[in-house]
Amino acid sequence: MEIFHPAEILSRDEIAAVQTRRLARVVKRAARSPFYKAKLDEMGVDPESITSLDDLTRLPLTTKDDLRASYPFGMLADEHRELVRLHASSGTTGAPTVVYHTEKDLRTWADLMARCMHMAGMRKEDVFQNIAGYGLFTGGLGIHYGAERLGCLTIPAGAGNTARQIKLLRDFNVSAVHIIPSYALYLAGVVAEQGLDPRDLPPRIALIGAEPHSEEARRRIEEMLGLKAYNSYGLSEMNGPGVAFECEHQNGMHLWEDSYIAEILDPQTQEPVAEGEVGELVMTTLTREAMPLLRYRTRDLTRFLPGECACGRLHRRIDRITGRADDMLIIKGVNIYPMQIEKILLAVPEVAQNYQIVLEREGYIDQIKVRVEIKEEFFIEDMRVLGGIQKRIAGLLRNELLVTPRVELVEAKSLPTSEGKASRVVDLRETKD
């Protein structure tokens, strides 16, 4: 196993020792912020009393609402003169969430990101194209500095402008890209429209993330673009990208436990779920200086994967994000996550890349409709063929969801597309009240 950083090969005992030492330190640092000082005082927790990992449950859970309520400086644990950067959410509804960084925070983040990229097979010799938004969004600069830390020639392409993306890929023989899954599928479609085979594009590695996606979506990306696509996980509150990443075996994402403590809790009770069960990922930063976070509720749903990875790294692996606790749809009393629908649709050979979930209300009853793009060669005038596809998709969805959605087949490229994160759910229920 070739490694980028010695922390990759820590034993379980060494990981526990690092976490214990850093947890005690980060709680003391967090207590310097107005928010955590008040919170710990209210709970009667003396930061000096946190001496083992068993003390973690004595610490408060932190939510996005806490970050918003503390805007702009309530979570800050360092002096302003030590800060070198901030990232923030868009803040289009209410106060944004802001995350601050010291110079050391940025170096640590770049090292974590470079560690991830190296683990996925990238090397100094690679030409890397970053197809992500720059600015306040963490995915752009976070990935960018990681690639440069690894030593790659890095192209800060940014998001959108598909024609330019394709030209850059071809002109500079780009070997690795960072790209949102839905945009990867869209880009492959645009290349095909130009009469080219998307598999002839030069990248051999795609780093995908920023939006939940199914294994079927990943395999379709790999097949259409002729590369290996590695799943990743990050969120702005934990720096951004670089929290967890797949190795070459693509069997779960190694979460860097020397920098984070991860818990998986029941979203309703906040109690730990059984080993291997899906729950809400709760994270504590261990190396953050400017703005440490204790037991942050990500709202992302995942599970710890049992056993050890064949790569030899012993950092625990999390499964792909199956959705968000606050993205759950309740239809006819049944809990449904959009990712369940994508998993079924993209496994159907006749289905194209795009789909839309429409929520409607008839009288007092909520209904779910799934609009599905069908590949051109299957979208023909023979209603028996289309009817058979429609019935098959409806049956597969019923078996997965335990409710029967209405399935509407539409022509390929007829549903709205976006060069950013895909918006899959359209809720029309409120407009009909």
TrEMBL record:
GO terms for molecular function: ligase activity. Pathway: Aromatic compound metabolism; phenylacetate degradation. Its EC number is 6.2.1.30. Keywords: Ligase, Nucleotide-binding, Phosphopantetheine, Phosphoprotein. Residues 333-429 form the AMP-dependent ligase C-terminal domain. Residues 83-283 form the AMP-dependent synthetase/ligase domain. Catalyzes the activation of phenylacetic acid (PA) to phenylacetyl-CoA (PA-CoA). Belongs to the phenylacetyl-CoA ligase family. This is Phenylacetate-coenzyme A ligase. It comes from Oceanidesulfovibrio marinus. The lineage of its organism: Bacteria, Pseudomonadati, Thermodesulfobacteriota, Desulfovibrionia, Desulfovibrionales.
